[in-house]
Amino acid sequence: MNKPMMIVESGRPKAKIVVGDSNQAVEASNILQSTIKNISGAELPITTDNQSVSGTHIYVGRGKSVESFGIEIPSGITSQMDEEGFTIRNVNDSLVIAGNEDWHYRGTIYAVFDFLEIIGCRWFFPGQYGQVIPQMDTISIPPINKIERPSFRMRNIWYSGWMPVNDEDSEELTRWLDCNKANRLLISLPGDGTITRLAPSDQYFDTHPHIYAVDSKGERSRDMLCLSQPDTIEIATETIRTAFDQNPTMFAFGFAPPDGMPMCHCTQCQQRLHGINAKHLGRASLSDGWFYFVNEVAKKIQVEFPDRWLLTNGYANRMYPPEGISDFSENIGIQFAFLQSCTLHRIGDPRCWQRQDCEKLLKRWADLCPVFIYDYDPGVDLQNLPFPTLHNLRHDIPFFKDLGVWGFWTEGQNTWMRTHLNYYVRTKLMWNSDLDVDAIVRDYCQKFYGEAAYWIEKYVWTLENAVEKTDLHAQWGNNHHIPWKIIFTDPLIETLQEYLNHARQQTSALAHQRHVDMLQEYHHYLIAFLSIQQLTHLGEYQQAISKIDEALVARSKLSEVKSNLLPHTPDWVVESSDSTLEGLSDICRYLLDRTDGTVGKLVVFLPRDWKFKTDPFEDGLIEQWYRSDYEDEWDSVATTLYWENQGYQNETGYGYTGYAWYRTEFEVKNDMGNRPLILTFGGVFGQEIWVWINQLLVLHRDNESPSKPFDINLPENIQVGTNQIAVRIHSHGAHRGAQGGIYRRAFLWTSNN
Ligand SMILES: [Zn+2]
Ligand SMILES: [Zn+2]
Fold this sequence. Notes:
It is a single chain. Helix content is 34%, strand content 21%. The protein is an alpha/beta fold. The chain folds into four domains: 5-149, Chitobiase/beta-hexosaminidase domain 2-like (Chitobiase, domain 2), CATH 3.30.379; 195-251 and 259-306, no CATH class; 462-590, no CATH class; 595-751, Jelly Rolls, CATH 2.60.120.260. Helix 6 crosses helix 8 (287-304) and helix 10 (390-403) packs parallel to helix 11 (416-431). The longest helix has 29 residues, at 510-538. The protein starts with a strand and ends with a strand. Residues 342, 344-345, 352, 354-355, 473, 653 line the site of one zinc ion.
């Protein structure tokens, strides 16, 4: 058949849907029928295969007739879980839309959504707002003959709890994943703490206490196992054996230790760690202990179930492959987490050591065993700023495909202004890693913004280029404040605003106008947020407060359209993390209160620029760098930005770690009376801080909350006239991306009390 097939003509149905034998075929037929009706007003009749039908047919799912055609349709299931796919093709005067429905596969559903995409439908966001349904009263389709199979067998994005998620959001996400051919596989996964599945404590704790881990106080723990104890290995093996026996299509058993620093403190477990620390995690690498245990169990399971998988994770302190295991069992699969790895740059970026390390580790794992990726999108903080990483997806997803990676279990957030384009492009590439990202983005701009497409496309790629080229590095779990102004510079923000102005002028269709307006609102949020952050760092607290209201207004306007475009942060997140608009707002108010008379009054801001000197060989104390007559060579840095962002990082973005010194002078006038002076640091990054005033050590602080300001009651040696202050900071490599030093201004004030 070479001529187009007419489905609807001038609002009248010209084809019938013939529904296949399964529930999935019924679901898919209903989706097809209702969407065609939304497009054209015409309702295609749905019939079963038994009724005699004449005219043009659209067969949805398998049935008697489809089987008789003898065409290839993906089917079947093995423990490889790589049989997904669908067929869309013309047969005689009819069309077959059907896919693999075995096991948990959703092939016929994907086939219908793929067919609707051919007609022009799109699902950029979950729910009504992101849906594009073309309006036409005639639908005719060109000849189609295709079989599609996905590039990856796992293609999931799930909502973590960092942003609010209601039932409707969850349902809409599930549907949206179907629309874009993502999946959830429904296999047993190695979630945090799932090790308890292996030996449930209510079953074994009383009778077999010795299989449970010894904690640091010598007590047995119910949440973690002793990994070197032979009985632990026996019991774990028996649990998995029973599960596999009872469930023939349970192809995988997932288990992992609890989050954090899970280990057994018994001598044998400790010895097995071989004293290895993971670079930049800075504490014990637990890989050898953990994978010894996993491997022993896996070898036993393999004898009986050679085609099933034990899945565990390479997460937290188990990101490194083990060093002391020679016979790594090939039935182990690893969920490799992109922790402690910059998310602004692509894998292997020559300017980003974190992404280079990621590439090296991943390649080592992929040599050992099947790997799937646990990554984070957005991969930074909770501040809800744009997170453009299409430049990464374009490179990384084909790279993963070449490496044989199984797929993705992406930790997502319910913040769709921030993530929708990433997620949309992600689903496209997870299905077919050969697709052209530029073409996907162009199509998105045309379908979602209509006449404004040209300017929105410029907006998207201008933002992308700025992130791709930045020498700032940031990662998920990095809960202090990232200096976003380095990427989102004033000229960049102005350029983006010009594009949005053009876009607004170009649009006439109401739907497109609304989409541009929402993007504009999000741009307002970005501008306001950047101002709050910048003004707080500089000490302009009053102005910063007024910007907070602007950010809140932009956020509510977006929430009015749909609560998950730019959601409110849940209370527990606000309480547990400073990395939110609310957290920044609290910090700003704390500082304002100390200057505007609420808690106290400003005496003087310390200078913005201080003398600075790194101290890699720890000479500073011996040579008394805090003395004003120690001149030597000092640099000058601003105290409103981390030292990495002022030149103290190498060409791969590795920031200076170790000791560093700041020094400056400040004046105290003689009209202070006898009121005590307090010195407040707005924000200092470093694990330890020492402060000298007039050559006397007045403070040593373990700096556990580097995003929070702190106060020092000044000692009696403070004097009218010129005073001298020196700050020594120790910033070691653990848990840091590229942030060190004083990054919010310090000031002197007097308390009202
Ligand atoms: Zn132990
Ligand atoms: Zn980077």
